[in-house]
Amino acid sequence: xxxxxxxxxxxxxxxxxxxxxxxxxxxxxxxxxxxxxxxxxxxxxxxxxxxxxxxxxxxxxxxxxxxxxxxxxxxxxxxxxxxxxxxxxxxxxxxxxxxxxxxxxxxxxxxxxxxxxxxxxxxxxxxxxxxxxxxxxxxxxxxxxxxxxxxxxxxxxxxxxxxxxxxxxxxxxxxxxxxxxxxxxxxxxxxxxxxxxxxxxxxxxxxxxxxxxxxxxxxxxxxxxxxxxxxxxxxxxxxxxxxxxxxxxxxxxxxxxxxxxxxxxxxxxxxxxxxxxxxxxxxxxxxxxxxxxxxxxxxxxxxxxxxxxxxxxxxxxxxxxxxxxxxxxxxxxxxxxxxxxxxxxxxxxxxxxxxxxxxxxxxxxxxxxxxxxxxxxxxxxxxxxxxxxxxxxxxxxxxxxxxxxxxxxxxxxxxxxxxxxxxxxxxxxxxxx
Length: 433
Fold this sequence. Notes:
The protein is 45% helix and 11% strand. The chain is of the alpha+beta class. α16 runs antiparallel to α17 (378-384). It is built from 20 helices and 12 strands.
């Protein structure tokens, strides 16, 4: 992982916490969770407050994700809204946190001047044993506390203000008035500063969960569709009257479902040619074949000419795999006819020719699923499925790791928004990674 760390391909864009009073607030949040305090004087956090350094110190990467459900969070500053989520069990954790920040911006801005917020994203289950447990999560509630008890003090002051207004002669209670002054020194004027979050309940939309090796859950008006390994507990047995189940290796049914629900952008010249997606996936295919044929091959200096030469020398392997010539023929067909008749394409190759519909709210989740169907494309896997990318990276040879890091640095990291927009049609204001 050293290369990934140095290139900021893992734990990049995190926020340093190195001021003593901020470290103390973080420790008070850990106290609130009943956890051991950190002895670190400096560490970094993501949007949820997860710190890789503290995870290493505690020997527990799930210290904010017990049982991989009811995710905990620690908010030190409003700036966390612009950070990534680097460790989570649900793909929509970032979206839920964005909603929380947006709905409660005034309260978060006011509270974090003097305090830190912490708590849990409470689901309706405490542990996931089967698919039914996942499907029972329809909404989540943010349970919010504060490290310095600013929320409790604001609530107490609000109650005293109400008492002063409604109880006759309350103004003569010196002890109460002194307490109000003491609280106001800490909370400020609660009539001007909204210290209580406005919205704490949010709908649980479509998502991927890392339970049972990975489960995709898509929500439509009257139907829920689950895509996962058929060996997962509850597959085809949990709520069969309202849930449609598709095996993760059933490419035909998965494609038909995504296309029928308008979650896919089918191959047409209007987007295929300007995006360069077919050529990108063709290049990814060839470099994958090079690594498969010779894990010690040095790909760092491999340009288009080098790859063409390698393909000529290994024509039998390229033909046997068939992916590269298929993509080149698809590109020629699109250029000549403007589209591809997808029904004439073998189901296992269809995902090579599509991307998620850019205007669909599930575009990130669909692109994640597509990237899993196109494993050679490590760039797309990194963009949409970092957990899958890191797992695959562990099995790469040292030479191929060096090439992967160099390729990601040279392409995606140069301008992430432009890269996503060109290849996948994702507008910058839609980006969540």
